[in-house]
Sequence to fold (316 residues):
Amino acid sequence: MANHPAQPRLIADTPLAPNVLKLLEPHVEVLDWPTAGSAPENIAAIYTYGHPRVDGALLDRLPGVRVISNFGVGVDHIDVPAAMARGIPVGNTPGVLDGATADLAMALLLAAGRRLTEGDRYARGPKFLHYDPGYMLGREIHGSTLGIMGLGRIGQQVARRARGFNMTILYHNRRRQPEVEADLGVRYVSFAELLAQSDYVVLTVPLTPETQGLIGREQLALMKRTATLINVARGPVVDTAALTAALSERRIYAAALDVTDPEPLPRGHPLLQLDNLTITPHLGSATEETRQRMAEISVENLVAGLTGRPLRHAVQ
Ligand code: NAP
Fold:
């Protein structure tokens, strides 16, 4: 870590990627995340790079904090009301990662429907000795029905991509979006209808008390036996035990998860043994270009907060 005693001091869940550190170091002295209960002095800012928990107790131990800047859009690990109650703005990076995250959602959808990762394992393994037209039949993607739970920034980008696959697109939000419906040709349905009618259900809601456990045993039972669940939102939106049971009993066709609860899953977890699970290690926004833009915006938010200016993107 560079040592700049004259600069404002910031805590971050290190190690930070070199491109992030390079942008931060002209402005702040970066300190490691404090150990439980400790209270380093003169901390002016908090930078959350992974998903470290920021709650009222931490903020009380760091009374000089003027801004919290998050690398990413989801802020479920930050107690935003606690920050607001103390007059501390919370910055995030919406918008710049929609395309990359929607690309990954489509990649997972395609991979699960067409058994890509299972096929990859088979093609590399000792059992693949001759082609058989009867093996590894997947499910059609073009012309099928997609249900998007949470048609926000990322969800809308998923819809744009799905149109290229000639999919019928359903969505559910708390608030209906007539302009988006006209623009994207998507149809508003109830959550229950979305589950019952979709061949692919994609989750792009934020994690909130309302969306925690949104997909449990009851919701999985409403899905078609031929349907696939794709989660690029946050792990706790899906009940892991219920999903494990539904997949192992083939009550739904498949699942594709970029996020899990817990994350990572313990090695040897039953979900990881299932062939009808496709899984990635939280790669939604993980492209070099997107991560650079996220770094730039998060540092811009940080500097604005330190100098008392409005953040470019503040969580409301
Ligand atoms: P956004 O623009 O705020 O969209 C969220 C959508 O979810 C909105 O349309 C919202 O509509 C809907 N929604 C919220 N609560 C709901 C509820 N209880 N029931 C039904 N719909 C609800 O957010 P975004 O930028 O697209 O990001 C969404 C989330 O994706 C983030 O919060 C983050 O957790 C996750 N994410 C994951 C990755 C990854 O690496 N896998 C990357 C980026 C983001 P209403 O308000 O009308 O309900």
